[in-house]
Amino acid sequence: MTAPRPITDALKILDSMLTLPLATYLETCTHCGVCADSCHLYQADANPIHIPSYKADFLRRVYKRYHTFAGRYLPWLVDARDFTERELESWKDSVYQCTMCRRCSIACPIGIDNALIVRTSRTILSAMGKAPALLEEHTRNACEVGSPLRVTREAFLERIAWLEEELQDALDDDQIKIPLDKVGADFLYIAASLELMKFPQTILSTLKLFHAAGIDYTLSSVRYDVTNYGVFNGDDAATKAIAEKDVAEGERLRVKTVVVSECGHAYRALRWEAPNWLQRDLPFAVKDVVELVHEWSAQEKLKLNPEHNPDAITYHDPCNMSRNSGMMEEPRTLLRRAAADFREMTPNREHNWCCGGGAGCCPCRSTMRRAWGPASRRRNKSNGRRPALSPRPAPIARCNWAR
User: Fold this and answer.
1) pLDDT value of position 400
2) Is residue 336 in some structural domain?
3) What per-residue string of b and e applies to 289-317 under the rule 16 or more CB within 10 Å gives b?
4) Number of domains the chain contains
5) Alpha helix ranges (H) inside 339-392
6) Taking a C-beta distance cutoff of 8 angstroms, is the pair 293, 320 a contact?
7) pTM value?
8) Cβ–Cβ < 8 Å for 312, 384
9) Do the domain assignments include residue 57?
10) Which residues of the chain have pLDDT under 50?
11) Which domain holds residue 183?
12) pLDDT at 153
């Protein structure tokens, strides 16, 4: 979202982001190669650019050149490199072909967070005007229009009117209304443009749950898309600005809890990362739809009957929800309450394979991206052919596009 800048600015950005954890990760990689075996991209295409440590080496070489004794005086000995325009340009293909799922971090013997290194690299690329055009466009749309897919307020209201009719038909009650901009409600539900335009059934299902639980909720005609493409793009200013809009709307409506959905990055971004970006505690709780349904089920606000779902099913753990947010048992508890024959995938929980759609890879419809979905499906062995459930539309989209 910015014009190209002199390469010296890239060094300043690196210096400003060089925290102790980042420096530790850049210093300690032994290039053992374990991360390659854990990466779904490399398993789909054995090109070195997909190896997590290879991606990290772009930043690592520059770091060594300017921040280590050996790099300053014996750069050839430690493969340190000057930060040039050509060097920066060479980062793009590898750094933006990463879902930042952190499966490699789980596998790494010393716990190197390659996703943090990739995100830092993207921040530098974005600031230098070298982010992919589609991610730039989506981020700009999110900042200017409020939605990466340019869903306007008018389009949102039309969609809600249609969803209200569908909800009335589904619950056989013509008096049901979807509340909008209700001040003082307990819950503010913010979905995503991907759901609004491609998977409205997820919103309809969520609204059914709200009414079944009898909760006091509202939607917003101001903030109706929780997707934060600044996270994907690497644009820190946009990331903060988008999160600030969600927080401001929660404050304006004086809600107790903001409920988010979509592919999981929005939940992670708003719940765990926004307080750091904004340098303040949020005045409300942030919860995922699955998290709330789990609570309501335990409180018997929602009564689940497994006899209604007798067929065998399995579950795919979204990376941002499981590995990056620690929500692994709540979905399983719900499925065991709601289904008669729940069976685990292999592997599962924090070891589950990424769907291939995160960190901006889902909207980038490349040939390579289409190959990642089947590779992940083959490795997520479900002990037979049965429906695989996911609480996120992004993995569903990935499987559809990968067919």
Assistant:
1) 46
2) yes
3) bbbbbbebbeeeebebeeeebeebbbbbb
4) 3
5) 367-379
6) no
7) 0.84
8) yes
9) yes
10) 1, 365, 367, 385, 394-403
11) 137-295
12) 92
